[in-house]
Design goal:
With 240 residues, the protein is an alpha/beta fold. The protein has one domain: Metallo-beta-lactamase, Chain A. The protein is built from seven helices and twelve strands. The strands form two sheets. A seven-stranded mixed sheet has the order 1-2-3-4-5-6-7. Strands 8-9-10-11-12 form a five-stranded mixed sheet, with no helix packed on it. Helix 6 packs antiparallel against helix 7.
């Protein structure tokens, strides 16, 4: 009996972790043809943590901003979008090299979906053993898909050296990714790859560049936000 109890104790961490997987993605309409999806990871190996991404419906296919946090959730998203809209994902743009933005790139490629990052993001992904895109861009780029404009902008270093934001001018949606913090947190989060000194200046450049923003979507946690997230992010970075 004691031996059985000891064996169960050894298995408990495995069973507990197994209960958190597989994760199930969720999708929510934001505005017009723009939707937010949420996937999950286990950054501390214990508690599921949400990551926000976007997808945009166009006449020529779906544009995906960032991949879900693992390959299973990426396939879930592909299947969900195919079922709901009878459309395929045309392309995906990842906003920096961390796995919460790139983990599903190989799955997307296997499904015939074009994958893009900046040149710097691909370089950092390779150096850190993360998934890499098929295509890259070397400067701020505008993707025009089915009459919808998707603009990339590199404001400078912040959460990472390579973090970019995505601007959807027709719907006035700014995807800030991990450069921008949710109002649900006062923690600066993971900063091993960050430039904390430059981060506030990069946020200020984003704020100055884009006008009449209706929605600002942060990379993690509650995503219901607007331009007030810029000020909140600055307070979090400065520890105030």
């Amino acid at each position: 009996m004691k031996l059985l109890s000891f064996a169960l104790l050894l298995l408990l961490p495995v069973l507990t972790k197994a209960q958190t997987r597989p994760f199930k993605i969720s999708t929510t309409h934001l505005t017009g043809n723009v939707y937010v999806y949420v996937s999950y990871g286990l950054p501390d190996d214990k508690t599921p943590f949400p990551a926000n991404g976007l997808y945009v419906i166009t006449k020529a296919g779906i544009v995906l901003i960032d991949t879900p946090w693992d390959e299973d959730q990426t396939q879930q998203l592909i299947d969900t979008l195919q079922h709901k809209y009878h459309q395929k994902i045309r392309l995906c743009i990842s906003t920096h090299f961390h796995s919460d933005r790139t983990a599903g790139l190989d799955v997307l490629k296997k499904n015939g979906i074009k994958t893009y990052t900046s040149v710097l993001t691909k370089k950092l992904a390779k150096q850190n053993g993360n998934k890499q895109p098929e295509f890259t861009f070397s400067k701020d780029t505008v993707f025009n898909v089915g009459g919808v404009s998707v603009q990339t902008y590199y404001p400078g270093e912040g959460h990472t050296r390579d973090n970019i934001v995505i601007w959807l001018p027709q719907s006035k949606v700014l995807f800030g990714g991990c450069l921008i913090k949710s109002t649900e947190t006062n923690s600066i989060g993971y900063v091993a790859d960050a430039n904390v000194a430059e981060w506030p200046r990069s946020v200020a450049r984003v704020k100055a560049r884009f006008k009449n923003i209706r929605y600002v979507i942060p990379g993690h946690q509650g995503w219901q936000g607007d331009t007030l997230l810029f000020g909140h992010t600055l307070k979090v970075i400065k520890g105030k």
